[in-house]
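Anyone? Bumping this.
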Amino acid sequence: MIIAERKDLGQIVEMLEGKERVLVAGCRSCVSICHAGGEKEVATLAEVLRLQAMNEGRELEVTEATVERQCEKEWVREIGRQVADSDIVLSLACGVGVQVMQEFYPTVMTVPGLNTSNMGAPEEQGIYMEKCGGCGDCVLHLTGGVCPVARCSKSLLNGPCGGSQDGRCEVNRDLPCGWDQIYHSLERLGRLDLLEVNIPPKNWIPSRSGGPRRIVRASIVQGNEEKRAGGGA
Amino acid sequence: MRSGSDLESTLECVRDTATTEIGPPKSAGAEHVRKKAKALKGYADAFNLTDNQTAIVRLSSLASSVVCLQEGAEPVMQMTCRDRNRIAMQSDLLGAAALGVRNVLCISGDHQTFGNQKEAKNVYDIDPVQQLMVFRQMRDLGQVWGGDVLEERPRVFLGAAANPFADPFEFRVTRLAKKINAGADFIQTQAIFDLDRFERFMAMVRERGLDQKVHILAGVIPLRSANAARYMKTKVSGMSVPDEIVDRMKGAADPKKEGVRICVETIERLKDIPGVHGVHIMAIGWEDIVPTIVQECGLMLRS
């Protein structure tokens, strides 16, 4: 899932400056699981904004809406009325949600209430860890299911650097060394032989070196006629 | 001979080879490098010019290597994977070779969060193993990565680093083997204080016959104070400094002398370890002491 965290309140207030009607828009998907932009967080932030405006004697009307997934226009469509009644949308979705919202409602400005961080998973309640670098060319079959691109601070593909000690990364002692985890995973799997192989320079084209990535699944793309008929999503 | 490097020919025929380091200055002043090269010339077979060491902006290792050459001292140009993608790396290798640099050390580099550009976006397009693969292809096949043919090949002696004190320990020898397979001709190790662990490492190296395939220069650092010893023990990742060393430095009437004594004793022990072909002395700002150490160890004065 996508991990995000709320921007600093001061920064949010600055983005909303001069606006009188704000729609705080959340998303029930990833950002809700990492407690950054779900229904609860929308309600809390909206209340904070109202109180702050009241204390400063400013007029501010704050409405709330949380959609199933802000990254799909079908869900974003549902809150058209509320967007139309606002001067600005403060999106508590990930960066994708913010952009889909802005594309779908091009005349009302959407601003981000969150900083989108990474693709990861909860380690335990309240702690989230990056797991995937989204490089588009998975090597997890060679590395015991632990991603060196995301989990080694230097994204090394052929083993740990000289700073790995006691299973910790040199960059921060609180961080596990990705290569230590790879080593022990392969040891448990009885596949330490995989470490002997030199992985050649990686193809980064499917990462970000080929411009924005676009995947086309031809079998389900609708033809013009189908689109006109209004079938599907 | 792959490279025409003096270091290569020395390592081929002499057992007690010595390399040392010159840290380029945090300025455009080449004089610093020139002075150090002049003073140390003859006391080592080659001089590493570090590449923005600890991720702090310094005079480039390529420029510093050329200054070194101008003084008649043979450089080992260090090149980190942190700051360059494969295009810049190959270009810099060609440039260095064109200017007469014959030794290149391939390393990942300290993470930028340690230096004075913490907010920098690092590169790590390729890692040191891949860097060696790319450079060896340029030298031996006369091709840049991807296959385009080079009219003139870079004649370079390729080096890599090994750290026997980082973890997981068992993987350290595998990683060394990978670097050798990728093209490393010589290896410089992390500074050795923990000789027991280093001996265990070398036993594993010999078991795999790796010492027959590569020249290993064992790293040493002369300590200047008990504080320095403590700092390296507790703060520098990837180092192992036994309590005994810290205690010796703490109890010493003249810590600098004691530091040199420890360094010389270490070198004497290292010389007896099969598979070790020489030493790499990292004086880190105390380069003046290198001639003393070299002389006390009965290492060469070749020039």
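Late reply, but here is one note on the structure posted above: Strands of chain B lie at 17-22, 46-49, 75-80, 103-107, 157-162, 186-191, 215-220, 276-281.
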